[in-house]
Amino acid sequence: MDTSLEMDACCGTGKRPENPAGLSAEVSAAAAALLRRGVLLPARGGDAVSLGRFLTLGLGLEEAYVESRIQTILRNGLAADDFAVPLASGDRLALSAAMPGVAGAALRRGGRYAAMRAAITQRREDAPPAPIAQLEEPVWIELRCFNSIAEELAGHLLCRGLAARPADAGQVLLPLAATPPAGLALPEPGLLWLAAWQTRPCFAFFRLSPWP
Questions:
Q1: Which helix (H) or strand (E) holds 153?
Q2: Which end of the chain is more exposed for a tag (fewer CB within 10 A), N or C?
Q3: What is a GO molecular function of this protein (predicted)?
């Protein structure tokens, strides 16, 4: 099975994303806890047609980081080994670093024990066709992160902007509630748009011109 990332760019060193300058440890910890509960993230339709494109172009993660650090991926409750698995708006993703034990080894992406969970594996050829989204049309993906991945991505994703349910956000993050960027409609009533930025609007990544 070809598990290589299919994307246009984003090659790099694989280092974890850096927390924005000035983001307090308290806010970072609260954001990590929120990622474990689940958030909703927007992306351009063209940047979310596949798992690999969403993780890199949609979330701004380096290919090398995705390959080396994200060891378990679940799409709608099924393990995904192939970065070319298609995505659709409303899909649910879970990301984890390496997990201990037999269960962790079996769920590990492309691991030697992957055959043990063949019945719950999402293969590219078996995935239901995803609706074709307009390249510039926003789509929403629900994301949960576990163990060290939540801690590593908390500041990065909070800087870019994310949607969360008020009960999940907690008192520490509520002051970061803001008006969503122009043209972006939240996918559910009652959601909060949370964003922490110091030097620039983080949702500048969500552009209306095609990516190079």
A1: helix 147-160
A2: C
A3: dioxygenase activity
